[in-house]
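User: Predict the structure for this protein chain, please.
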Amino acid sequence: MSGGFVSIEETGPFFQIGFWMGGELVIDGSTGHVLRVPSEPGEEHLAGLPAAHSLEKFLTMVALWVTGHLTKGLVEGDDEANLLPDHVLAAHKLIDRAGAEAPAWAYAFHNQ
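Assistant: Here is the predicted structure, written as structure tokens:
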């Protein structure tokens, strides 16, 4: 375990399905896990962290994230705008606890 995150063993083959949060997004053919491949120096500790354990869970989490992110922009300056990221990230844990630990989910909320 490194940095508080559990790294999983992926064996491939890997299928690239796009880009997400500055890194390639792949599906591991043997497990179905959705992974963000680190692309920046210093991100090696993020290798092997699932963004979700299935494509279905990933897409559900993306829909929730986009809704929360857009809603936060509508209520800027309001106390709820400050709490909204926490609500979204807590809901992610209900969908996929391990996937929700991927730092990319929180990055855009906290680095605007």
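The chain has four helices and four strands.
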